Amino acid sequence: MKKLTVILTTLSILASCSAPTGSVDGPMRDLGNFQLGHNIVVAPDLQKGPFSREASKEAWIASMKKAIDNRFGRYDGDRLVHFGVNVSGYVLAQSGVPLLFSPKSALIITVTAWDDRAGKKLNEEAREIIVLETFTGGSFIGSGYTMSTEEQMANLTYNAARNIEDWMFKNRDCLKENPTAEVLSECWKTSKEERDEQQRQMDELR
After folding, report:
1. Which secondary structure element, helix H or strand E, spans residue 107, and what is its range?
2. 109 forms bridges with which residues in the sheet?
């Protein structure tokens, strides 16, 4: 028992020091003429997964809004893009679950981007994003043993905002001036590879 306590304490230190949860220090990416407009986050039908810690809608909304502001507030392009984000489901790993199940924290959101200039959606089909917790140090157990609820939420929303940034980067040419018809025809689509990755992540949660 004493040995296990020492291991868990060590892993707690490693995870809390290495898991991204706050400010964004990495380089800015080419997002075309992007500038963040309204940052609207809702959670009308929030679902809590099995074996999860409890977290309120208000806490999720605040954490997600902060993560988006931190990441996208850095960009100062000429084209306002508004985000509408629906936080739809989560799992916050907790202690007390047998280690053999390797519980993981996860977050599911959907995102719609609005073009202020055109006054319409950029993506007709809401973009579904599934993110898992991130921690390093070679940890083999879930963050329920190493993080507080607030730290887990910050980690997940940080990863979700980074995923949104990846999505905007992929579609950066769609936000540049006078894109070609060929570029426009491929804008905001979800590829088969991306759908396969979403399915893999869902399978990992089961």
Report:
1. strand 106-115
2. 87, 129
Which residues on neighbouring strands pair with residue 34, listed in sequence order? 79
Nearest alpha carbon to residue 83 among 153, 131, 133, 31: 31
**Chain-centroid distance, C-alpha 193:** 18
CA 94 to chain centre: 20
Is the pLDDT assigned to residue 86 strictly greater than 90?
yes
Nearest to 26 by CA among 72, 62, 66: 72
The answer to whether the predicted template modeling score (pTM) of the entire model surpasses 0.85 is no
Close Cβ partners of 67 (under 8 Å, ≥ 6 residues apart): 154, 157, 158, 160, 161
Nearest 5°: the CA angle 67, 137, 206 is: 70
Q: Is the dihedral of CA 180, 29, 152, 145 positive or negative?
A: positive
pLDDT at 77 over 50: yes
* Banded pLDDT at 94 (limits 50, 70, 90): confident
